Amino acid sequence: MAGRAPVIGLTGGIASGKSTVGRMLEELGAEVVDADQLAREVVAPGTPGLLEVVATFGEEVLDAEGRLDRGRLASRVFADPGERSRLEQILHPRIAELARERLAAVRGRLAVYQAPLIFETGREGEFQGVLLVDCDPELQMARLRVRDRLGEAEARSRLAAQLPAAERRRRATWIVDNSGSLEDTRAQLLRLWEGELAKLRRAP
After folding, report:
1. Most buried of the four, 42, 90, 133, 150, by CB within 10 Å?
2. Contact indicator for 114, 19 with CB cutoff of 8 Å
3. Structural domain count of the chain
4. What is the pTM for the complete model shown?
């Protein structure tokens, strides 16, 4: 049986295109563990995570079926750094534990942990490198407003809650610029896959 796969992080600002690059990596043969999916799992109905979120923020963060209303909760926590910190204290340890389990189980060419806050949570040292998806800030703003149906003020608030782009670039191992076409992004990623990531996959 193949040994444990090398593990890299995949990160980027909100609406930068992490999911797009993650899908491209899967097409190339990597196995992606998505922190956003794990975040949904740890607050699924009946989980201790959801119970703690409701105990902290109240039942108004639930929808009519008793599931977490992620949009309503996001609007609330992004408007208040203290509330955002309380939510992160509930979610981050649970997500990190589940991510370690999933990544340890990957056997094959390359494991990728796709997460928005790798640098913000100081986790880059857990990986054999971190791939940053970068994006023109005005394009990022436009994508975010369309994707999440946000006004300009709320979109800027969400962007401001993240690490400055220059700091992410400074701390990244590799960078893919997703400001252009999908073909351009794919070409950059393919060069990386056949270059630095190939060396990583071949390492003993």
Report:
1. 133
2. yes
3. 1
4. 0.87
- Per the CB < 8 A criterion, the answer to whether 42 and 49 are in contact is yes
User: What range does the domain containing 187 cover?
Assistant: 7-202
Q: Is residue 157 part of a domain?
A: yes
Strand, coil or helix: what is 98?
A: helix
Residue 127 CA, distance from chain mean position: 14
Q: Which residues face 9 on adjacent strands?
A: 113, 130
Q: Are 72 and 64 in contact (CB under 8 A)?
A: no
Written as six digits, the tokens of 174 are 């590799």
Tell me the pairing of strands 31-34 and 7-12.
unpaired
CA distances from 39 to 73, 147, 164 (A): 13, 19, 23
Residue 104 lies in a domain: yes
Map tokens 């436009």 to a residue. 142
Give CA–CA dist 101/38, Å, rounded.
11
- How many of the other CB atoms lie within 10 Å of CB of 174? 16
